[in-house]
Write the structure tokens for this entry.
Amino acid sequence: METLVVGAGMAGLATAAELGRRGRDSVAVLEAGPDRGRTHIQTEYSSAEALRLWLRPDTDPDFSRPYETVGGAFRDLAGLRRRVGGRSLYWGGVLLPIEGWALSEKWPQAIATELTQTWDGGPSLYQRVIDDVVDWGAKPPGGLRLTLGELEFDRTPHATREEPAGGWSAFSPLAWWGEGDDGDPRVRRVPILAGHEVLGVRVEHGRAIGVQVRTEDGELRDLRAKRVVLAAGTVVNSRLAIQALADSGTGAPRELPGLVDKISQGFTVAFTDAERLPDTVRAAAREGRIHHRIGTASTRANQFVRFSESADGTVTLDSWTMGEQRRGPHGRVRCGGSGAWPWSTTVHAGLDAADEEVRASQQHLLDEVWAEVASPLGVPADPLVFSPRHGSPDLADRLTAIRTATPRTYSFPIGSEQHEAGTLALGEVLDEEQQFTAVPGLYACGPSVMPRTGAANPSMTTLALSKRLGAVLAR
């Protein structure tokens, strides 16, 4: 086997698909969980049931948290969706690139150029991702802007489409494995092996030579390959990397720093006297789309608003922010024990002083939105009240409670946005081809490789870098 890809989520599938497109069919994707089909949860379930699976992941048979945590971070919503497709069958489809102010620092310049300007003799990687999702059925980026007083919001691009049977779905690379005219015959030649949990990477003479797997019937098997790609999510990628680095003889410590998530806060409010709202707001509520403002280098946070209208004419506003947590020693993945794989794994995470600055800037941004909406209604625009402690312990209840005329604030605990990243950074642990500098033949993809994540949802960059890695491996 030329290449084994560990993990059938967004990153692993996109990497394997690019290899298949380029004629490399000595490739297999290994997934620990089952194959339960290719349907996004927003199509498979009602909106209420899909929301429950997200906010109450313990009700999802495919949810897994194969690590321990220290403190209150990376609990509750944090974990994996162990099934073919992974989180690509759960995400909301927001398709935003990493902001220029983040790409200009820490990222290798050549890769930043390929993401934003040109790659492989043609359009940029980001443009290639847009082309892929539009070909699949998503609407091209663009649309009506939204004005709230002095604030201007753009329509947020989404990799989503309405489904004929009802509901909607977000793009998954599994679409390329579709049957008949729905898939790519070159990609379908790449097998996806469900029920194959990778316990560790085999290293011989300092080089990756394959993996050890445990099949669904408990059998341990060694699979050999010239190259191994880690695409199992940031925490599991980190554990597999720590084990491989230990076996490489480099004396590497049994932990990887740089673990980050998104910092997210928001508020909800309902307006029963919606006729007093500006016409543009009422039109936005009837449409129900998400709009956003891109953050700056000082705020390090993007801001979103979504107005929606109920059958009785009540208009609800959901406004939230998503900000960048900077990498540092306060976030890390540590492994203990030795001998048999998998090693025990512990996640250490929290906020530092720079992150508290982002929290403060986010609260200011949310206050601005509240003031602009409250003003035409004659409602006192008192500053929103946030808990001094980040991470609402009753988050699920706050997000599902009936909206009221009094704004209700919330914040996501670190780890619960499922955007964890940063432990296998390009230019540090990995070279510019996404190969481990200390273990030739071992590669990584997904958010774990991002040296700085910016404020954006990582999915667009994950798809872009996976396409890039597939091309690198094909060469």
About this structure: The first helix runs from residue 10 to 21. Residues 436 and 449 are 10 Å apart (CA to CA). The chain has two domains: 3-142+166-260+329-350+415-474, 262-327+351-411. The chain has a mean pLDDT of 94.
